[in-house]
Amino acid sequence: MNFLNVTSCQSRCTGGAFLLALWLWAQPVAAQTEQILFDDFNYSTTAQLANNGWRVRTWEGGPGLANGSWSTNNISFVTDPAAPANKLMRLKASTNINGSTIVNNRFTTGNVSQSEVARTEQIYKNGTWAARMYFNDAPGIGPDGDTAIETFFGLTDYIEGAEPYSEIDFEYLPNGGWWTGSATPSMWSGTYRIVDWSDESNHGVTRTQGSLQGWHTLVMQVQDGYIAFYIDGAYQTSFSGPVAPDYPMYLMFQLWISNDCFDASCNTRGYINSSAYREYSEDVDWVYFEKNNLVPAAEIPQKIARLRTAGVAYVQNINANASSISSASSRPGSSSRSSVMGSSRSSTPAAQQCNWWGTLYAICTNINSGWGWQNNADCVGLQTCQTLSPPYGVIGTASSGSSRSSTLPISSRASSSVAASFTRLIQAEAYTAMSGVQLDSTTDINGGQYVGWIDANDWMAHANIHFPGSGIYKVEYRVASMAGSRLLLDLNAGAIQLGQVNIPATGGWQTWSTVSHNVSINAGIYSVGIFAPQGGWNLNWIRFTKL
Q1: Which of 5, 305, 339, 385 could cross-link to 354 by cystine, CB 3.0-4.6 Å?
Q2: What one-character DSSP code corresponds to residue 451?
Q3: Is 448:12 a contact under the CB 8 Å cutoff?
Q4: Strand 112-119, strand 69-70: pairing
Q5: Mean local confidence (pLDDT), 326-330
Q6: What pTM value is reported for the model?
Q7: Which residues contact 304 (CB under 8 A, 6 or more apart)?
Q8: Sign of CA dihedral 98, 103, 105, 109
């Protein structure tokens, strides 16, 4: 591996093997009968893949562009050049889209074709998830630079802002992206309790920078209230508490291209400005899941070797439990996902659209809240869209037969309870960019990490922070300082200055105090910056509360 540095982590990250062993020591121990999924992907056709419980996606839509396509033609089985008797599953994504022609998250010329392979049974949660994958830093054909995303992950039916939901991810971005302002190759290891961008506590993510070109063994260890990530046997990060997965998932692989912003001002997006054809790929050698057993990452290759020696190419002997969904009709993207949202089905006139921070989306017709990702087209639920303040939110006119607009009129969006009660805690160490600072473990309440070694002119930035309503926000800072100091708060790399806060002398580097001030912020998505005009202080977290 060629990891350069770890640049972000939620405060609940633990310290690796020692803490994991301590955590496991406290858990009840019971004799286990191995229940596993193992697939060597020793196939010739996607029909053989389907016969063993895999589904290859064919419907269009997100993630990615709303009219992006997904095809079985992007899945092939190739000979392993290092072991001619071995087969590899290859996922491909190709495009000739010029990024300058994308309008409202849709391409107007060209095409993009992506790939997804997923289990049809939604039964995967506690236990050990593992896969051996080959990552490519550049396309095999054409110019480089698109935000390609090479993944191994778990996911329930995709909804936003509600349960039941779980998501765990290994997502490798060889060309960078995702609000970082950087094209550096990065692996994102993360977990989501629910998808709610207004609340940082709903997910944990660590970005590890550095090339992963070549073969790697990825391991996720999941137990109630805990998840840890390993690459090639080396501990990467872990999360515990509410962000840990709490609902059985599908096990999946994807290769797709994102058009998300690189930076807070969105000067750069995910598709390069070229109409030349380019083709990205990733290979999967095998996948392994062992239910209810946290297998040490270093032992996974031994288990795979034993299965291969025994001539096992595929096995799935996991007993589904009562909360698992095993029918293919419940797969991601099927029409059954709307039933998860309850009795929210109703029609919304085509004249209504959602202006989501300047991008137009259709209003969903089969869900009332959340997003319609992977539901044949990208759309936003009416209630979700109504949380935005004008000029954003729902635009257009509902028909007289629609009862939803009378439930929450467009004119009342600014006073919605979501915007009025907004609070967001940002862990200092979860920065997406920084200069000069370092991380260390804290003895403050709830533990975790803090940002320290702050000298004059050091800074850190937290990208993609969503403020749902305009108005006055109370900003609190958890700080420690021997002699006192001060900090400056800004948005979008100093384009918007929000003010200065004096930091008192707290009496020690681990003696914590909370200071605050009130600032005025317009609704929108920003990069939140902390600048040090003077050094000599530590920062544990920041909290925004709308007054």
Answers
A1: 385
A2: E
A3: yes
A4: parallel
A5: 28
A6: 0.59
A7: 38, 132, 286, 288
A8: negative
Query: 446: helix, coil or strand?
Result: coil
DSSP state for residue 483 in the 8-state scheme: S
Q: What is the Rg, in whole angstroms, of the alpha carbon atoms belonging to the chain?
A: 24
CA distance 308 to 192: 34
DSSP per-residue string spanning 111-168:
-EEEEEEEES-B-B-SEEEEEEEEE-SS-SBS---SEEEEEEEEE-S--SSSSS--EE
Coil, strand or helix: which one is 339? helix
Average pLDDT rounded to a whole number, residues 212-219 = 98
- Is the confidence at residue 288, as pLDDT, over 80? yes
**CB-hemisphere CA count at 13 Å for 520?**
0
Q: Which two tokens stand for residue 87?
A: 């087969």
Q: Please give the single-letter amino acid code of residue 539.
A: L
Asked if residue 134 lies in contact with residue 283, where contact means CB atoms within 8 angstroms, the answer is yes
Task: Flag whether pLDDT at 447 surpasses 60.
Answer: yes
Q: Token digits for 393?
A: 């939110």
Distance CA 286, CA 38 (A): 7
Of 459, 531, 433, the C-alpha closest to 8 is 433
User: Would you call 419 helix, strand, or coil by DSSP?
Assistant: helix
Whether the CB-CB separation of 351 and 396 falls below 8 Å is answered with yes
Each residue's pLDDT tens digit, 306-323 = 999 999 999 999 864 322
- List pLDDT tens digits, range 57-67: 998 888 899 88
Is the pLDDT at 197 greater than 90, yes or no?
no
Phi-psi region of 393 (alpha: psi -120 to 50; beta: other; left: phi over 0): left
Residues 382 and 367: beta-carbon distance below 8 Å:
no
Cα distance between residue 322 and residue 212, in whole Å: 39
| C-alpha atoms less than 13 angstroms from C-alpha of 290 in its C-beta half-sphere | 17
Partnered with residue 451 across adjacent β-strands are: 439, 539
